[in-house]
Amino acid sequence: MFYNIFNTKEDTKEEKPEIIIDIHEKNSLVPAYLSEKAKTKFESLQIGDYLVGGTGIERKTWNDFISSMINKRIFTQLKEIQKYPNYLLIIEKKESIENKNLENAARGLLLSLVKQIPILFSENEKETAQFILLLANKKQKPVSLRPLKSVDTLEEQKQFILEGFPSVGQATAKKLLEKFHTIKNIINSNEQELKQILGKKYEKFKEVIE
After folding, report:
1. What integer is the mean pLDDT of 78-96?
2. Which of 74, 152, 199, 209 reaches 20 to 30 Å from 187, CA-CA?
3. pLDDT tens profile 158-180
4. Residue 56: strand, helix, or coil
5. Adjacency order of strands within the sheet including 55-61
6. Dist. CA 124–CA 95, nearest whole Å
7. Residue 23 has what DSSP assignment?
8. What is the CATH T-level fold of the domain 18-136, as seen in this structure?
9. d(Cα 155, Cα 161) in Å, to the nearest integer?
10. Is the per-residue pLDDT at 130 higher than 90?
11. Which pLDDT tens digit goes with each residue over 92-112?
12. What CATH architecture does domain 154-209 belong to?
């Protein structure tokens, strides 16, 4: 084997950036494009569709954006995404709709949103993935998968702690507290009692508490 002694470049293996993807994005082509150049991991994200370091990303097609405007879901989603240290809205404008009044209303909404949140437009899922990869390749500090939220009362604090367990969402946490009242009681309860609420989720829950 011969070595090029004039080659001053070091043979360093570049580490792939890590991107966390909400499980609801599995039907999109974006994760497929991302997996080619990044470490991707599917999680049940409470807020946003993608998490890159400390940046939460909400992704919508143009039709999704208009639909969420009509049912007012967009306002809640964009309020929640701002609980991350950094945040971003990506809109894939590849469809047009016949209702021009709705399109104009959506454009008006975008004008009001630009003061609150950074917005990027992409042509398709591939370009969306390219934007996310560019962001991922910048050095980012990791952030908790559970963004900060207001937990004023003792009951809210208990629920927030429980929601940090694998497969325990808001509804399951509430059911556990209604039955057992305290986190100590939940941990000390027997397998049969827990399985009545957790079902198949019990095994993952057990791994953490043991």
Report:
1. 87
2. 152
3. 777 777 666 677 777 888 788 87
4. strand
5. 39-43, 18-22, 50-52, 55-61, 86-92, 119-122
6. 10
7. G
8. Rossmann fold (3.40.50)
9. 10
10. yes
11. 986 666 777 888 888 888 888
12. Orthogonal Bundle (1.10)
User: Domain boundaries in the chain?
Assistant: 18-136, 154-209
Q: What is the pLDDT of residue 15?
A: 79
Rounded Cα–Cα distance for residues 144 and 175 (Å): 24
* DSSP of 113-170: HTTTS-EEEESSHHHHHHHHHHHHTS------SS------SHHHHHHHHHTTSTT--H
Q: What is the DSSP string of 185-210?
A: HHHHS-HHHHHHHHGGGHHHHHHHH-
Confidence of residue 209 (pLDDT cuts 50, 70, 90): low
Token pair, residue 50, equals: 């993608």
Helices (H), 71-99: 73-81
Q: Which helix (H) or strand (E) holds 92?
A: strand 86-92
> Tokens 């991922």 sit at which residue?
136
CB 77 within 8 A of CB 118: no
Helix (H) or strand (E) holding 9, with range, is: none
Average pLDDT, the chain: 80
CA separation for the pair 21, 45 (Å, rounded): 8
- 173 vs 90, more confident: 90
Strands (E), 1-74: 18-22, 39-43, 50-52, 55-61
Neighbours of 70 (CB within 10 A): 11
